[in-house]
Amino acid sequence: MELEFDDNTSAPTNAPAGPSRRDQAIAKAIGPYISPIANANISPACHDSTLAYLLNILNKQWALRMFDATGKIPDGALEGNLSPSGNWDECLNITAHFNATDILGVEPNVTSFTGKYCTAFLSKASVEKSEPLLKAPRAASAALAPFLSTLPGGWELDIGMCIPSTCTSEELTVGLNIAFMGKVTAGAPDLFCYTKDDKTELSAGAIVMTTILSLTGLLMLVGTTVDIVAIKAAQDSEALWARVNIALQRTLPALLRRVFLAFSVYTNGRKLLDTSSTRDTLSCLHGIRFLSNTWDFLEGTVRDLRYMKPWTRAGPYLVGLYMGWILHKIRGRKIHLPAPVVAIGWITASLTGCLIVYGMYGVPSPPPKTLNLVYAMLNRTAWSICLAWVVFACVTGYGGFVNTLLSWKAFIPLSKLTYTSYLVSIDVQTYYWYTNKAPVYLSQTFLVYQFLASLPIIFAVAAIFSLAFESPMIALEKIIFPQPSRAAPAAPARQDAAQPLVSSTKPGRSGAVNAGFEADGGVVEAKQAGTDSAPENITPAEEKTG
User: Fold this and answer.
1) Are 172 and 235 within one domain?
2) Residue 388 to residues 383, 399, 519: CA-CA distances in angstroms?
């Protein structure tokens, strides 16, 4: 559809003049790229509203505000600045009043509409789809389409557009595709179009989820109340709490009472914040879990799709499995390693870890095929080997200040939240980015601030979900599948008669040994690591119950 105006349109002599040539030129030059006007099949209401908007950008404040709220091609587009979002609030707060005088110079009834904010997604069309499906306006060849079509392949431009509320997202999509002559593919899904009067309608899934969350909240409230009443009653058997507790015990069956107590925020919160550990705990793993998890947060929502395949995780899994077997075999023994071996281990692990993180810095994008394949195949397995050395060194007394840091008790509650925080982290960060109404310049400083600000929010949300779901489910599992408490007898230590392993040498230069490795036993010399004479475990793990 072309914008055509009849200069000889007759009108009463006392009627205001129609749109000027300047207004017509502005409408023809930019109209097809910020509205559905290029679509010849738009509804009459959309046509009149859009035409009134385009012809009055310099005459009416509401029209100027609509244009002001529409995103424009920003500076630095070739450097990746491809999200001119416009102004959401300005668009939705616009109310336009116009009459046909604004279009043709005659004076009929006044019409009104509001602003409608739509996000249009523009991408460079493929060669196969380069031919326009519909005829484009003549002005298109000298405006935005030539610029967009020169951008590199694979880019996508997200533009916020303010259009009349009388137009639909489908009309805008068709109009933009006509305007761009097939060189650019445009789409404005209805999901990304909003007006001020829109009302949120809950889907069936949202209603179900709201119901589940409400019932869970009720269980947490009841369970916490029952728990606190019982605790207070135990402290003072003559107080009112005791009488209330007796009434609850008579009212609630024992099984139902246990189910309610499974959702107690008080008890589950104390367990979450508990920093005690057993002699079999590998304390350094708490810090490793937390720091590794925060590394995932820093990556944000970016995920390597190749790593989603299960077989691509076999390397790290096997490394962890083998290290677990080694720790199981040497538990209860004091390991002696020569200083050069310890130094080589730490230097190799540190350099390998730095190469994995920073080794690809400065490599051209896309990287050479061979380098890309080798890095993709080995980086995660190599990283797992580095972590395996850190764990081995820490639990055998060669961790030094690294073990002191990773074993810090403040990491214990945070490490308990690693799985839950991992699950909610993507949603928390996605919510932030999708509700951001203005473009953000991504710099290292901004990312650091955004990461540090997201961290406490993610763990706060994770704590809530852990208290609401994870901890109660563990307690309910024990109710449904009760496990009897049992302790296995200790097995005697085995020594090779030909090569005694017992030595009076003290373990570890740093003197810090994990509690699980403090049992009486000899020193395993480094030269015998990996031989058949490796000692067996002499103290089986005690099962933690309750």
Assistant:
1) no
2) 9, 12, 22
